[in-house]
Structures are given as structure tokens and as C-alpha cells.
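Give me C-alpha cells for this 185-residue protein.
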Amino acid sequence: MARKSLSKKIRFEVFKRDSFTCQYCGRKAPDVLLNADHIQPTSKGGTNDLLNLTTSCEDCNSGKSDRELSDSPVIDKQRAQLEALQERKEQIELMFEWQKGLLDLEDHVSDQIADYWVEKAQGFSLNEQGFQSLKKLLNNFEISEAVLKLSISRFWRAFSCSWTGRSSIPNGLFSPRSLAPACVT
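Here you go.
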């Protein structure tokens, strides 16, 4: 049976996994020429699977030839690397879940404060621009400070809004429920 050669991609993945270091003697590239070595030789049924490959320098690989290693430090090291990679993967997934939870919490807080404001400013509702301004306010201040800013007369300046006409409605921030739909965004 003809031996199937390793692709450059597989060789590179083996070298990268092993930190470009010979797993037998510890020498590193570029000081030595590295090879992808079969732990179980292909002449004895070994495959080109990543778990059957390890990084070795040219000297160690030629010295080993087609002999099978009787000790298992390389296999144990690879198993430990795989377990560490799995642990990293799980930690990254947990980190993204945590980040998503923070975003959900921010949205919940924004909704709660918007409801509070609508309750206090009876007759008015927050439009989308006003809601976005509220989110910016929450990014710049603690929740208690944001609520206080909503409760005092300088509330409009916190949103950087201007007053329009006789109706005393901040431009684009909110709309009275009683006005025509043209005023609601």
C-alpha cells in the first residue's frame, strides 16, 4: 500500500499545536528543520490523523525511523493539549453568554427607566430617538444618577435636545400621546 503524503496544511497544524518545537528533544524552529512525525508508524498501521502526528526535528525523526515509541509522553502531552483547548472553548462560550447577559440586562434597565420616565412625564411617550438618548445617558452615568437627571429640570440638556415652537416639545425626543401621528416617530 502506497504511503499518503501529508498536506502542508496538516503539517502546519501539527507544528502550530506543538509550538514549533521538537517533542523529543525540545529544539525549536528556525534553529532546526521540523518534520511531522507519525507516533505509530504508517508501516505499522498508523494514520495521518492529527492525534497520530507530532512535531520532531529532522535528527530525531531520522533516528526514530519506523520504530514505535514505547513510552507515552507525547500522547499524554497531546491529550493534555486537547483538554486545554476544550476548556478554552468552553470558557469562550461562557464569556459570550455572560456578555449577552450583560446586554440583555442593559436593555432591561433601559426599558425600566423608560417606563419610569413615561410614568413621571404623563401625557408623553419616548420615541426611538429618545430611547437611544436614554441609553447614551445610561452609558455615561450610574443608574441612580440617570434617574436623578430624568427627575430634574435639566433633563432636556442631558439629551442635548432643543425646544421647538409653542408646543414646548423637545425636538424628536418624545411625543405627546394626544398629538397627531405626524409628531410621533
